[in-house]
Amino acid sequence: MDVLVDVGCGKGRVINAWLAEGYANRMIGVELDAGVAEKTRARLRRYPNVSILTGDIVANFPSDGTVFYLFNPFNADVMRKFKDRLKECIAHRAIGEATVLYYNCRHAEVFAKDEACEIEYGRLEHPFAVIRVSTGPPERLAT
Fold this sequence. Notes:
Layout: E1 4-7, H1 13-20, E2 27-31, H2 34-44, E3 50-54, E4 67-71, H3 76-91, E5 97-103, H4 109-112, E6 117-123, E7 127-134
């Protein structure tokens, strides 16, 4: 079962949506602002499948995460560090892939320049990208 991670979870709106849809997956929110994280943690404490971490995503990376939701939370440099940490984590587990749901994707080029990533673009209110990250280049690119 996928482990869902909301990067920059804020008040937990995405986690609330997942819960409202009936998802029973393990859910992890990571929030940089300690005060916001504490309020979100307190509000969602009745859900045993939800945990809220305080701090930077690169330093507090959920290594078992398989689906990551981001709403343009970083600059390009931090996005590169996020991508590199994600690739490092998936290289050390049996399922060597993860999906990034990147809404308002201002720095998707960080992933587009990496042969281990496949990107599909779309647009709702903001542009979005669904990025599949694997431990190596996609099969279609392999020689």
